[in-house]
Structures are given as structure tokens and as C-alpha cells.
Amino acid sequence: MSILRVGLLFGGKSGEHEVSINSARAILQGLSSGDNPSKYSVYPFYIDKSGFWHTGETAQSVLDSARPLPCDEIAKPNLWLFPPQAAEIDLWFPILHGPNGEDGTLQGLLSLMTVPFVGSGVLGSSVGMDKIAMKAVFASAGLPQVKYMAVTRSEIWSNPCVFPKLCDRIEETLDYPCFVKPANLGSSVGISKARNRNELEAALDGAASYDRRIIVEAGVNARELECAVLGNDNPQASVVGEITFDADFYDYETKYTDGRSQMVIPAQIPSHVQSRIQEMAIGAFKAIDGRGLSRVDFFYVEKTGELFINEINTLPGFTKFSMYPQMWKSSGIDFPQLVDKLIGLALEN
Asked: Which among 47, 120, 165, 310 would be 20 to 30 A from 296, CA to CA?
């Protein structure tokens, strides 16, 4: 059997550039372990913060150092120009998080190459990234969610008569506390908790600086649970994990600061709650037309037994210590097996 040439694609122009590098480092190690070296030859492709593609020793040096390259001024005709080595790739393993990585744009580019790639296609990726579109799809699938409102930058950055009325509607519909989120950013970037009118106004203004579409959600006193999904037409769900943290909410700083958050896998929940979460996770995956992998996040109100789906992430963090591979490890699939299965699912597509 011939060895498959896998293009490991990482970096990108989003705020999750460094997370992508760490995910790629773990995937490279996974593809270099067990039986995988006899199946795959890995070629790193690094997209720097300006959008320029690097291969060979330069891309490998980023993986070795875990540090991004300095962002130099690049002539516009060279941006997003495929290096010649791209034509030699049999399958792509993209692990770019955030905008221009997991929002369908890169997936469209890879689809045009007519080469298999790991993860969801254009539709699943774009719906999974846009929180407003995602919630609409979840609603149509009958998945329970907390109350929310979609607003636009033009409403927020409007004349002095419109903005106060918008805040009035949010208060009447959702009350406090509420969470304000850019619709198209990952890893808790730009998310704020509002407990009063002043904080709401500041949160809306801040979110509008990131995105033209914003979502405002009702706050809920709940445990934060997650479930990993693996598969294509017949996806499987992992055991359920729980995120605990010492902050007011799970913001970017808490997520990526050592010691600020902890994973509990499997989560200490009743078996019927785990079964329901697994069922809902697969339902969400199918609703967005997911492929390959996704992590689905939930709110569990222990006092009432209510479950709400929060969001789906079609290219979750993929270090050895990230929730997605850890949940599968607890379910009996170790890291080298997991990356091997994901490549198999990409070929199946």
C-alpha cells in the first residue's frame, strides 16, 4: 500500500493563530506514532498572519519552536499563492481555528482543489461558525436553547435615538445577566457579560468592533458540559466532559491561562443526562451537515434538569490536552487512533 501524502495546514490570519500551531504540533506527533508512519507522510504548510503560505524547513521550524513567524509586509500578488508542493498532496488535514479557517472559506478553497480534507465542508463549517445561523438551524431541529436576540453593528453604531431603544428591547426580552458575543469569532474572543445597562452598552460596542453581526443570550446558572462527535453519515458521540473554572464566565483569558480552568472527564452526571447530551450532540452535528469531527457544548441546569445546547465547534482545539481528544481518549480511542480515523473519514467522503 502506498503511503498517503498528508498536508498539515495550520496558522492563519485569525486571533487563534497560536492555538492552531499547538494543535498542529499535536497532530504531527499523532501521525508520527503507532502504525501511522507506515501509512502517512506529513508535509507541513504554515499560513502566516499576513496570509502567506510557507512549506518545508520554514513551516517545520514553526512547529518545532511553537512560535509564529514575524508578520512581514507581503506583496499582494503573493498572498494566498499556493506553493508548488501543494500539488503533491493526497489529503489535507486543516487545523486553522476561527475566521478564514473553520468558517467555510478554507473548506471552499480545498474543495476547489478536488483533494479530500479532514472535517466539515462549506455548509457545515459556515453554519457552525456563525452563531446566529447556527441557532436558527438548531431551532429548526428542535434543539432547546437559551433565549437570545440577534442584532447588527448598524443598530449599535446608530444615532442616539436607536441605540437606547435596542438596549430597552434586550432588557425586556432577556433581562440581566446576559452575554454579548460576536457572531463569527471562536475561543470566547470578544464575549462580555452584562449585569446592568452600562455594561450592556459597553459590551455591545465592544462586540461590534469585532463583527457586524452580534448575538445576545440570556444568562443561565448552569454547568458547562461538552461532547465530542466523530463520523460522517453515522456519527458516534463520546463520553461527556465538564469544564470548571474560577472566573465569572469562561472567557478567552480563563480558557488559555494555565490553572484557570479544569476538565472533568467523564463528567459526574446521571446516565440519563449523558445519554440525552450524546443524542443532542449527534442531532446538532447532523443538523448543520457536519463531517468528520465536532465538539458540541451544553448548559446543564442541575436544579431543574434542563439541558440547553450552546454551540457546535467544527474544528475544535486539538492539542493532546484539549477537550475533544481527551473525551475520545476516555471513550477508548487514543490520539494516534483518532487522527487515523479522521483521515479515514475524509477519504470516505
From this structure: 47
Domain covering 148-218 in this structure, CATH number: 3.30.1490.20
In the predicted model, residues of the chain with pLDDT beneath 70 are 1, 72-80, 186-188, 246-260
Long-range contacts of 280-283 (CB under 8 A, 24+ apart): 280/143, 280/307, 280/309, 281/227, 281/228, 281/229, 281/237, 282/229, 282/235, 282/236, 282/237, 283/141, 283/143
Q: What is the pLDDT of residues 47-76, one digit of tens each?
A: 999 888 999 999 999 999 999 988 766 555
Q: Of 188, 181, 190, give the one whose Cα is nearest residue 313.
A: 188
Indicate the pTM of the whole model.
0.91
- For 288, the grid coordinates are 448543520
CATH class of segment(s) 128-144+221-348? alpha beta
Looking at the chain, which residues constitute the CATH 3.30.1490.20 domain(s)? Answer: 148-218
Kindly report the number of other CB atoms within 10 A of residue 276's CB atom: 17
Question: Which one, of 60, 32, 66, lies nearest residue 45 by Cα?
Answer: 60
96-115, pLDDT tens digit by residue?
998 889 999 999 999 999 99
Q: How far apart are the first and last CA of the chain?
A: 20
The whole-angstrom separation of Cα 251 and Cα 241 is 18
What is the CATH number that goes with domain 4-117?
A: 3.40.50.20
SS3 content of the chain, % helix, strand, coil (to 5): 40, 25, 40
Residue 238: closest CA among 346, 330, 344: 330
CB atoms within 10 A of CB 88: 9
For residue 296, what are the contacts with CB-CB under 8 A and spacing of at least 6?
226, 227, 228, 229, 280, 281, 284, 285, 309, 311, 312, 313
